[in-house]
């Protein structure tokens, strides 16, 4: 008889497994299992589902000695393990009450009803101890064996007469314990597949977040504005499955795409209390229903949302909001995606701020360089021209033209890049005045390859030439020669400023590039930093120098610099 009960229960268990598998493919059931926050209604639904499983197990039972060998416990134990105490109690109550009600007065009716309720309750209590339902099939198998043996004990204690109860337990304990425990383990394996599928979806969401971040980078690098927020929200809305996407700063709505556009309008103050809480606390907010969103518009169709703050350093500067039109529809995947996007966006915005500050600093340093050059050079140039005026008015006139040209270019160099030809003309104007001042002591040679459209930072050559003249040649009694070269090389252009002056020792050279220099060398450090900032380490200054033999300074301008900077400037202008 034991064998026939065992095979009979195993056959019936197969139907259970098929139903469980089909249920696991149902989107609504998967959402119930995966939800970050399960509502009371969700728990009641789960209780009804697993209670129905228990009732089905009763009807599929095998009559034995006036009782039933059955798989009723499988449904209620699974319900408790997955849904928690309330689901375990309710599903156990549903299936247990049904078992008692269909056989009122049967010698095992009360015992079986009580044991079913007890098994569901204990499984629900174990839910919190076992990572909220995420348990291995081995643990589920052990729990199934333990709770089925507990059922046998309850039958022995409650069912009367005891002799009949004992005879029944001797026959059913092994088939029910082994088959039902295996059924519970198999059901858990099916549920594990739901979580594994969630992990695969999570990996997809991670890739989606990276794709979105990649597409939004050109916009967010301009900072958080209505334009960048609109483009970012639109990209998320088109790529991800949300009913609405919104971005705010710390005061007003910058963009809202999708459902609710009629009253969540750009420029309005932040409407929902959930968003205000996120801005105030700097913490992720999850709204599971319309009341928790707390939109002032009573007809607002948005019924659940995840709201994550956007940070800049430790300050909240805005929020990213992902909305759905169904209640309790925010899953843990949605939360991870929103948090991942917010972190990526916050990093992009922080980089944008740093780039903006770097540009401001570069401009400030450039102005400092200009202010250093102007008074010093102007004073010497004017003295030179004054001394020439009476002897050679035409030369004085030419020098004044050079001086005017020099300062015109110097003061108009607010642009980020200028043509190399303009920089060379700037240097020629400077050297013409210096040659008039020092006469035969200063010789100049230009070796310039044909240049077309090569763009360089403003004031990138003049400080190098001035250093060559001031620190290289003038300390020599007889003066010397400065050579300016621009040579086309593979991948760009190499620019050289060389002199045959007094040179430098290694300590002085190291001090120049490590900022351990006097203020009169600030121009050289500024040039080096701007080149490296714009083009990378390959373009930093390369300086070679030997005492009394001279100094050679070189740097490299990549061919792609022109197109990249022009395209970036055009794009920024379009974004504004």
Automatic annotation (TrEMBL):
<keyword id="KW-0418">Kinase</keyword>
<protein>
    <recommendedName>
        <fullName>histidine kinase</fullName>
        <ecNumber>2.7.13.3</ecNumber>
    </recommendedName>
</protein>
<feature type="transmembrane region" description="Helical">
    <location>
        <begin position="6"/>
        <end position="23"/>
    </location>
</feature>
<feature type="transmembrane region" description="Helical">
    <location>
        <begin position="171"/>
        <end position="191"/>
    </location>
</feature>
<keyword id="KW-0808">Transferase</keyword>
<dbReference type="GO" id="GO:0071555">
    <property type="term" value="P:cell wall organization"/>
</dbReference>
<keyword id="KW-1003">Cell membrane</keyword>
<dbReference type="InterPro" id="IPR003594">
    <property type="entry name" value="HATPase_dom"/>
</dbReference>
<feature type="transmembrane region" description="Helical">
    <location>
        <begin position="44"/>
        <end position="68"/>
    </location>
</feature>
<dbReference type="GO" id="GO:0000155">
    <property type="term" value="F:phosphorelay sensor kinase activity"/>
</dbReference>
<feature type="transmembrane region" description="Helical">
    <location>
        <begin position="104"/>
        <end position="127"/>
    </location>
</feature>
<dbReference type="Pfam" id="PF06580">
    <property type="entry name" value="His_kinase"/>
</dbReference>
<dbReference type="GO" id="GO:0005524">
    <property type="term" value="F:ATP binding"/>
</dbReference>
<keyword id="KW-0547">Nucleotide-binding</keyword>
<dbReference type="InterPro" id="IPR029016">
    <property type="entry name" value="GAF-like_dom_sf"/>
</dbReference>
<dbReference type="InterPro" id="IPR050640">
    <property type="entry name" value="Bact_2-comp_sensor_kinase"/>
</dbReference>
<keyword id="KW-1133">Transmembrane helix</keyword>
<dbReference type="GO" id="GO:0005886">
    <property type="term" value="C:plasma membrane"/>
</dbReference>
<dbReference type="InterPro" id="IPR003018">
    <property type="entry name" value="GAF"/>
</dbReference>
<dbReference type="InterPro" id="IPR011620">
    <property type="entry name" value="Sig_transdc_His_kinase_LytS_TM"/>
</dbReference>
<dbReference type="Pfam" id="PF13185">
    <property type="entry name" value="GAF_2"/>
</dbReference>
<dbReference type="InterPro" id="IPR010559">
    <property type="entry name" value="Sig_transdc_His_kin_internal"/>
</dbReference>
<feature type="transmembrane region" description="Helical">
    <location>
        <begin position="139"/>
        <end position="159"/>
    </location>
</feature>
<feature type="transmembrane region" description="Helical">
    <location>
        <begin position="74"/>
        <end position="97"/>
    </location>
</feature>
<keyword id="KW-0597">Phosphoprotein</keyword>
<dbReference type="Pfam" id="PF02518">
    <property type="entry name" value="HATPase_c"/>
</dbReference>
<dbReference type="InterPro" id="IPR036890">
    <property type="entry name" value="HATPase_C_sf"/>
</dbReference>
<keyword id="KW-0812">Transmembrane</keyword>
<keyword id="KW-0902">Two-component regulatory system</keyword>
<feature type="domain" description="GAF">
    <location>
        <begin position="223"/>
        <end position="359"/>
    </location>
</feature>
<keyword id="KW-0067">ATP-binding</keyword>
<feature type="domain" description="Histidine kinase/HSP90-like ATPase">
    <location>
        <begin position="456"/>
        <end position="561"/>
    </location>
</feature>
<dbReference type="Pfam" id="PF07694">
    <property type="entry name" value="5TM-5TMR_LYT"/>
</dbReference>
<keyword id="KW-0472">Membrane</keyword>
């Amino acid at each position: 008889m034991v064998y026939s009960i065992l095979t009979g229960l195993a056959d019936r268990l197969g139907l259970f497994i098929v139903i469980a598998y089909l249920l696991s493919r149902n989107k609504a059931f998967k959402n119930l299992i995966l939800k970050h926050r399960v509502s009371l209604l969700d728990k009641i639904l789960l209780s009804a589902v697993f209670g129905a499983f228990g009732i089905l197990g009763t009807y599929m039972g095998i009559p034995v000695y006036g009782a039933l060998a059955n798989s009723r416990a499988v449904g209620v134990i699974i319900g408790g393990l997955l849904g928690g105490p309330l689901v375990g109690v309710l599903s156990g109550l549903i299936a247990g009450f049904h078992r008692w009600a269909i056989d009122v007065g049967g010698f095992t009716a009360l015992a079986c009803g009580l044991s079913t309720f007890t098994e569901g309750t204990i499984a629900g209590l174990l839910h919190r101890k076992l990572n909220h339902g995420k348990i291995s099939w081995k643990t589920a198998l052990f729990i199934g064996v333990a709770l089925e043996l507990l059922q046998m004990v309850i039958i022995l204690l409650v069912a009367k007469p005891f002799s009949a109860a004992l005879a029944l337990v001797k026959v059913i304990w092994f088939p029910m314990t082994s088959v039902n425990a295996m059924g519970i383990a198999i059901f858990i394996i099916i549920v594990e597949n739901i979580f594994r599928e969630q992990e695969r979806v999570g990996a997809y969401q991670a890739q989606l977040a990276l794709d979105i971040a990649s597409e939004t980078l050109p916009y967010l690098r301009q900072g958080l504005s209505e334009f960048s927020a609109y483009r970012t929200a639109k990209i998320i809305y088109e790529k991800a499955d949300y009913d609405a996407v919104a971005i705010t700063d710390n005061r007003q709505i910058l963009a809202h795409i999708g459902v609710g556009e009629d009253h969540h309008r750009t420029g309005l103050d932040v409407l929902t209390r959930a968003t205000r809480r996120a801005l105030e606390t700097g913490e992720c907010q999850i709204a599971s229903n319309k009341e928790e969103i707390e939109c002032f518009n009573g007809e607002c169709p948005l019924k659940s949302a995840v709201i994550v703050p956007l940070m800049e350093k430790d300050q909240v500067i805005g929020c990213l909001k992902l909305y759905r039109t169904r209640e309790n529809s925010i899953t843990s995947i949605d939360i991870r995606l929103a948090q991942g996007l917010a972190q990526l966006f916050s990093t992009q915005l922080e980089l944008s701020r740093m780039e903006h500050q770097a540009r401001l600093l570069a401009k400030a340093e450039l102005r400092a360089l200009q202010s250093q050059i102007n008074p010093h050079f102007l004073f010497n140039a004017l003295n030179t021209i004054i001394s020439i005026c009476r002897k050679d008015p035409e030369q004085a006139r030419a020098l004044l033209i050079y001086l005017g040209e020099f300062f015109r270019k110097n003061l108009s160099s607010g642009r980020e890049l200028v043509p190399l030809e303009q920089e060379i003309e700037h240097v020629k104007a400077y050297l013409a005045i210096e040659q008039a001042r020092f006469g035969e002591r200063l010789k100049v040679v230009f070796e310039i390859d044909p240049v077309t459209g090569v763009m360089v930072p403003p004031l990138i050559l003049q400080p190098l030439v001035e250093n060559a003249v001031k620190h290289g040649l003038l300390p020599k009694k007889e003066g010397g020669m400065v050579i300016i070269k621009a040579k086309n090389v593979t991948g760009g252009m190499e620019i050289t400023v060389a002199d045959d002056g007094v040179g430098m020792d290694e300590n002085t050279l190291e001090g120049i590039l490590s900022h351990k220099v006097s203020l009169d060398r600030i121009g050289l450090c500024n040039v080096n930093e701007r080149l490296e900032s714009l083009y990378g380490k390959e373009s930093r200054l390369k300086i070679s120098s030997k005492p009394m033999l001279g100094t050679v300074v070189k740097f490299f301008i990549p061919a792609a610099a022109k197109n990249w900077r022009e395209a970036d400037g055009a794009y920024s202008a379009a974004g504004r």
